[in-house]
Amino acid sequence: MAKNLRLKTARASLDMSQQDLADAVDVTRQTISAIERGDYNPTINLCIRICKALNVTLNDLFWEEN
């Protein structure tokens, strides 16, 4: 699994820390860190919550380009 740099970029563009995003989507900061590192594959429900918190689409953050 690749690093999710798009998630990190979207979060940073809103000046959100990993903890801010974690609080917004009701997970731990470690979970957000693991998703960004590519060590954890979030559930679709968590993906949706993250996208809503960052005001982006699922395609923006999680669609893998070939």
TrEMBL record:
Family annotation (SMART domains): HTH_XRE
Keyword Magnesium applies: no
Keyword field: DNA-binding
Single Gene Ontology MF annotation: DNA binding
Pfam family membership, one: HTH_3
Keyword Thylakoid in annotation: no
InterPro entries (UniProt xref): Cro/C1-type_HTH, Lambda_DNA-bd_dom_sf
Record-annotated HTH cro/C1-type domain positions: 7-61
Name under which the protein is recorded: Putative transcriptional regulator
